[in-house]
Write a structure and sequence with these properties.
- The chain has six helices and four strands, in the order ααααββαββα.
- Helix 1 packs across helix 5 and helix 3 (51-69) packs parallel to helix 5.
- Helices cover 51% and strands 10% of the residues.
- The strands form two sheets. A two-stranded antiparallel ribbon has the order 1-2. Strands 3-4 form a two-stranded antiparallel ribbon.
- Strand 1 (93-97) and strand 2 (100-106) form a beta hairpin.
- The protein has a single domain (5-184), classed as Jann2411-like fold.
- Residues 137-180 form the Zinc finger CGNR domain.
- This is Zinc finger CGNR domain-containing protein.
- InterPro entries: ABATE (IPR010852), ABATE_dom_sf (IPR023286), Znf_CGNR (IPR021005).
Length: 185
């Protein structure tokens, strides 16, 4: 583990959120899909379960996508992360839950709107990347036909392909076939 458990989990949640409309259409278009996403990453607290909540999560997704797109410009990302921390009124406090007994940070009240809680925690996880000098771990899939993002948590920062469309395998098969065709001539 490179970062704390909650930082890595939240970075993965942010990545999945950004990708939720980049591969094969919209995956968070209704309340049941949003619930599956939230439950899969253990989001707790208030859920309004209405259209406004889904729309606010979609706006957060757009903001996070812009952060990934700017990952090669540290000053710009710092500005975006600081704006997100400010907009969410992040206020850190330590907590733990029976299902997650390690101490971890929450950055918003359980009574705050969902997008605000998600945005605060995702912004803080991004801040952890920046403080560690690891912003280059935010990447876009290297497959030429894929717009998905990834967070490279590998030890040597060598990950190139996303998890959404089997991109790595497709690229490796294409390279193998190209080598076979070249060697067969």
């Amino acid at each position: 583990m490179i970062f704390s458990h909650d930082t890595e989990l939240t970075l993965r949640a942010a990545c999945v959120l950004v990708n939720s409309d980049r591969v094969d259409g919209e995956h968070l278009g209704d309340l049941p899909a949003l619930d599956v996403y939230l439950d899969g990453f253990g989001w707790t607290g208030r859920r309004d379960r209405d259209t406004a909540e889904i729309e606010s999560v979609h706006r957060l997704r757009t903001r996070l996508g812009k952060i990934w797109a700017s990952a090669d410009d540290e000053e710009r990302v710092v500005g975006q992360v600081n704006a997100l921390l400010s907009d969410t009124r992040a206020a850190p406090w330590l907590t733990r839950h029976p299902e997650m007994p390690e101490w971890h940070l929450h950055l918003a009240s359980i009574h705050d709107p969902l997008w605000q809680r998600m945005g605060a925690e995702m912004a803080m996880s991004l801040a952890d990347l920046i403080r560690a000098g690891e912003l280059r771990r935010l990447k876009t899939c290297a497959a030429p036909d894929c717009d998905a993002v990834l967070v490279d948590l590998s030890r040597n920062r060598s990950r190139m392909f996303c998890d959404t469309g089997n991109c790595g395998n497709r690229q490796h098969v294409a390279a193998y076939r190209q080598r076979q065709a070249r060697d067969g001539d």
